[in-house]
Structures are given as C-alpha cells and as structure tokens.
Amino acid sequence: MLQKTNTATLADFDHHDHPPSQSVFGFWVYLMTDCILFAALFATFGVLGHQFAGGPTGKDLFNISDVAVETAVLLISSITYGFAMLGAHQRKTGAVLGWLSVTFILGALFLVLELREFSHLIAEGAGPQRSAFLSSFFVLVSTHGVHVFFGLVWMAVLMMQVIRRPQLDDREVRRLTCLSLFWHFLDVVWICVFTFVYLGSVI
User: Fold this and answer.
1) In this structure, is residue 180 part of a structural domain?
2) pTM passes above 0.90
3) What DSSP element (H or E) covers 182?
4) For this UniProt entry, which segments traverse the membrane (predicted)?
5) Residue 31 falls within a domain, yes or no?
6) What is residue 7's predicted lDDT score, i.e. its pLDDT?
7) Model confidence over 4-51: pLDDT tens digits?
8) Containing domain of residue 70, as a range?
9) Is residue 9 part of a domain?
C-alpha cells in the first residue's frame, strides 16, 4: 500500500514538474497573427491594385507560366516536408534529413526564381516606386519571400539539431511540427498570391 502511494506521489510530481508542452498551440496563435498581417497586405493590394499611374499593368508584366513554375516548386516542397514528418513520427533520422534536404533545395529554388522575377521587373523600369500597384505587389510578394527565407534558416537549424542527436525525441518532433505548420501556411498564402495577385491581374 505504501509502495503504491509513493508511486502515485512520484507520478504526480513528475506530471507537475514536466507539464505538457504548449509550443504547438502557441505557434498556432502566432500563425493567426501572421494571417492578420497577410490579410492586411491583400486588402492593400485590393485597394491599390488598379492604381497604375499610367504605367504597366499586371497583364503587361506577369508571365504566368514562370509563376506557375514557382508555385509548383513550393507546393512540391510542402509534399516533401510531409514525408519528412512521416519519418519524424517513425523516428527515422535518415529519412527526416533526406526529405528536409530536398525541401530546403526546393525552397531555395523558389526564392531564386522570385528574385529573378523581381530583377527582371526592376530592369524593365517596373520597380516598387513606379506605381501604387507595383508598390503593393512588391510589399506583398516580398513579405512572403522573407517568410520563406526565415523558414529555410529555421529548417537548417533543425537539420543541424537532428544531426547532433542520434535519436529523435518528442522535443525534436514538436519543433519539426511547428515548422511544418509554418511551411504549409506559406503554401496556402502563396496559392492566394498566385490566384488573387497574378491571375487576378492577368485575367
């Protein structure tokens, strides 16, 4: 009887000493604030998207086939990250690192394509200072690009942490889960950008 009591007390102590992590819930809260940020940027583009100041329009500037390639690259990176999470839940370190590496390369390729698009627009005299339309476009798309860049930095840090630990534990899986939420969120935002900004400006 005394042994059972001691065991129960020890279990209670361990429960209070190590409460369940709220990191995933907290990250959902952060994503909600990011939703507000992007909603404000989309609303700004909606208001200024037809203020061309006599300059080029989206139909004159945007190459939908190139943007479609960017979109495909980012969506495929979301799939490869999903495979990384499957490996994480199965505690397969090699699979996690392999799929994260593929995801990182695809994310970096997306940024290269986006920067190439920006440089092409600026070379044609269609920089952010040309019109309200282009100002709102550059702010919205570059804000998404900055998020992708920090996502890649975060991914590289997590890959280093996985390499240093011989066995994945719950803490690493939670960290990978938070980045997974972030990465998929960026995919959803980009689909909105592709539909609302690019297609909406061309059609």
Assistant:
1) yes
2) no
3) helix 170-192
4) 27-48, 68-88, 95-113, 133-160, 181-200
5) no
6) 43
7) 444 444 444 344 444 445 677 788 888 999 999 999 999 999 999 999
8) 63-203
9) no
When comparing pLDDT for 25 and 103, which is higher? 103
- Cβ burial 66-104 (10 Å sphere, 16+ → b, else e): ebeebbebbebbbebbebbbebbeeeebebbbebbebbb
Contact 31, 75 (CB under 8 A): no
pLDDT at 21: 56
Would you state the pLDDT for residue 5? Answer: 42
AA letter at 72? A
What tens digit of pLDDT does each residue of 50-70 get?
999 888 999 999 999 999 999
Nearest to 75, CA basis, from 176, 189, 198, 202: 189
Q: Are 161 and 175 in contact (CB under 8 A)?
A: yes
Rounded Cα distance between 147 and 34, Å, is: 10
CATH of the domain at 106: 1.20.120.80
In terms of C-beta distances under 8 Å and separation of at least 24 residues, what long-range contacts does 200-203 make, across chains too? Answer: 200/49, 200/58, 201/49, 201/57, 201/58, 201/59, 201/62, 202/58, 202/59, 202/62, 202/64
Q: Are 147 and 30 in contact (CB under 8 A)?
A: no
- Evaluate whether residue 102 is within a structural domain: yes
